[in-house]
Specification:
Low-confidence stretches: 1-14, 17-33
Structural class: alpha+beta
Order of helices and strands: HEEEEEEEEEEEHHEEEEHEE
CATH topology of the largest domain: Cathepsin D, subunit A, domain 1
Number of strands: 17
Largest sheet: 7 strands, mixed
Number of helices: 4
Distance between the termini: 74 Å
CATH class of the largest domain: Mainly Beta
CATH superfamily of the largest domain: Acid Proteases
Strand content: over 45%
């Protein structure tokens, strides 16, 4: 009787184990993320975005991940950076991807040399037009105090004091963060810059804090700048 009781106990528990295993598998499948087929950004704010994901509206704050597995990395009033399937993608308001999504071509700018063999290009800083001189020898995007004031940069208040070695000696500078720099179709955000007290340099230098985040290529005399993904 004792042996028979043990056999019956095993026979009762085996189906129970099977049911529990099947339940665990079903729960895992139900909670797993599914492939996202369509994403549309319908609202943008500082550090917050409203995103339609396969027809479901999601309010995401920086660092949040939706149930579909979409992560908001950053957001401003003009664009958002989302991580989808391990890839970072930039979205403007109304920007979307779907089954027909094609990765955009890299923004490219070609600059011809001036007669004195300098590479000059018109761009903007924080929306203000700027005449740049490409300078791979400059560590940072550098400008004069006069230019900074024209651009609305109160460098003595927001900047960090420092010193820099120039052709004329040691100069006092202020390190600042430039929110947005545009050259042609290339746009970079949060670029470190340096402001020199006074009127030096006479033109804003497009230094390596900007150029180092691009692909640069010399095609004959033409300098080609290409934005990285």
């Amino acid at each position: 009787m004792h042996a028979r009781h043990r056999v019956l106990a095993v026979s009762r528990s085996s189906p129970e184990r099977i049911r529990m295993t099947l339940l665990a598998v079903l729960l895992t499948a139900a909670t797993g993320t599914q492939a996202v087929t369509k994403i549309t950004v319908v609202g943008l704010f500082k550090d917050t975005a409203i995103v339609m994901i396969d027809g479901t509206r999601r309010l995401l704050r920086s660092g949040d991940t939706s149930p579909e597995g979409v992560t908001l990395l950053s957001a401003t009033s003009t664009d958002a950076v989302l991580e989808i399937d391990g890839e970072q993608k930039h979205f403007g308001l109304g920007g979307q991807i779907g089954g027909s999504y094609v990765r955009p071509e890299q923004a490219t700018v070609r600059i011809w040399p001036t007669p004195n063999r300098m590479y000059a290009v018109i761009g903007s800083i924080n929306g203000y037009p700027v005449n740049f001189i490409v300078d791979t020898g400059a560590t940072l995007v550098s400008m004069s105090g006069r230019e900074a004031k024209r651009l609305g940069i109160d460098y003595r208040v927001i900047g960090t004091p420092g010193h820099s070695s120039t052709a004329t000696g040691i100069a006092k500078i202020y390190l600042v963060n430039l929110d947005r720099i545009r050259v042609g179709d290339i746009v970079l955000r949060n670029v470190q810059g340096a402001v020199h007290d006074g009127d030096f340099p006479p033109a804003t230098l497009l230094g390596m804090s900007f150029l180092g985040r691009l692909n640069m290529h010399q095609d004959g005399q033409v300098l080609e700048l290409k934005q990285k993904f």
